[in-house]
Amino acid sequence: MRNFYRIGSALAAALFLFAAAGIATAQDFPNKTVRIIVPYPPGGSAEAQARLLAQKLSETWGQPVIVESKPGAGTTIGAAYVASSPPDGYTLYLAGTTSHLPSAILFRKSIKYDALKSFAGVSLVASSPFILAVNPSVLPANSVKEYIDLAKAKPNTITYASSGNGAGPHLAGVLLQMLTGIKLVHVPFKGSAPATVALLGGQVQSQMADVSVLPQLEGGKLRALAVTSATRSPLIPNLPTIAESGVPGYDVTYLSAILAPAGTPKAIVDQINAAINKALTSPDVRQRFNAQGFEPTGSTPEALDQLLASEMVKYEKVIKESGMKID
Question: Stretch 69-95: mean pLDDT, rounded?
């Protein structure tokens, strides 16, 4: 019995020292460069969002915060890199829920991480819809109804570009087909920027685009038909939703979040969370996010973990019922 108490006392002391070490580490954090990994090529809206956040975090911490792009394989390359990084808060991941979760489902047999268990939620960052856009010179659609009618008249002929296999825009196109019965041709690219270039050049007829396409829409080079979110975006309120355009129940909303590798001490997660939420309340951050088409959307780590779990259930259902596969 005496040995039992000795073991228990030793274990309690070890746990106390471990917790104390975590607090001390958090107090010193950060004392070197912090990296935000973006799973898309340079030039897209995600990178712009990450760079603005990095600037604010650097100002708060007095340490460099840099953005690194690690694109490819439906965002799984960037996710795998972060999941295998040391859980010390110095490697963070800008994840889009509509890419991170579906990609983990679709690439499940080839990846070595779990979209939920391999990461610690830190904070939501922003929300925005995708935009169904067409090149009017190659596809004469002025509305979602006309787009659907054209697709029904000529199945498997209308092309739509996305930022990659398994990414949010790919999912948005699959859901549109599932709910309307149309058949489109998916053309994946390594990011939103090259997909938009192809649309502008007429190599594809339409795109499930992110908000980085807004300048081309405003310039009249491309035509927006609708947003993919359940409600209209306050930033482009005149653009209808796909749901209100004759496809009830349609909703694919992009939510970006900062994740850390699983096992990152909670004290460090909380410290990063506080810095992110402070940045998101800054008037200049709100103005610049809004200009890029994003609504700043902070959260607690716990709320983010709950959201990711519920979104995973939703996308599992969509992928299973639609028969969505990697092209």
Answer: 95
